[in-house]
Amino acid sequence: MKKLLLAAFVLASAAFSAKAQQGSVLVYGSLGLQTQSANYVNLRNVDGESGKGTCFSIAPGVGYQFNKNWTAGLELGFSSNKSGDAKAENLFNVGPFVRYSQPISDIFSIYGQAGVGFESYKQDQSKASGVYVSVVPAISANIKNGFALNFGFGGLSFENTKVKDGDAGSSFGVNFGKSFNIGVSKNFGGKK
């Protein structure tokens, strides 16, 4: 039960952004940790072997809020996935984002965030790099002093990567209602 609660807590993203304020700086991010035990069979593992594994991810971002609706900035991301005795798979991404927020009351806002950028993958001697595009919808509930709770429920993603000295590949993902995350947000400065 403790592992389940810990996994649920850690998988929830923590973000630092908030109620729209013109001229403010938006700082946000997410943090995740996923573990699997020795008796859990990874569905991606086609030979059916089980083993211990850990995946850690962190994704901060910073932006400038031009008015109550539009924010633009830079997002970063890093994840490391280690399974069994294999060396960790590491993924790094960086790129600009734009966010459109629409207040629907004094407490609630909805927003969509689109990002595009460069990503790099490495495991042992294998390296790959490419581009990504993502679109994520969310709902924000303003609490007090510019703090808010953010609720995400999926999104769209596209990746196009090329393995060093190898082939290129692409993937497209649609994930609405399959995942859910909660974050905390805050804006700094700006006009009220």
UniProtKB/TrEMBL annotation:
Stored Pfam families: OMP_b-brl (PF13505)
Presence of keyword Cell division: no
Domain Outer membrane protein beta-barrel: 9-176
Domain of life where this protein originates: Bacteria
Signal sequence segment: 1-20
Keywords noted in UniProt: Signal
UniProt protein name: Outer membrane beta-barrel protein
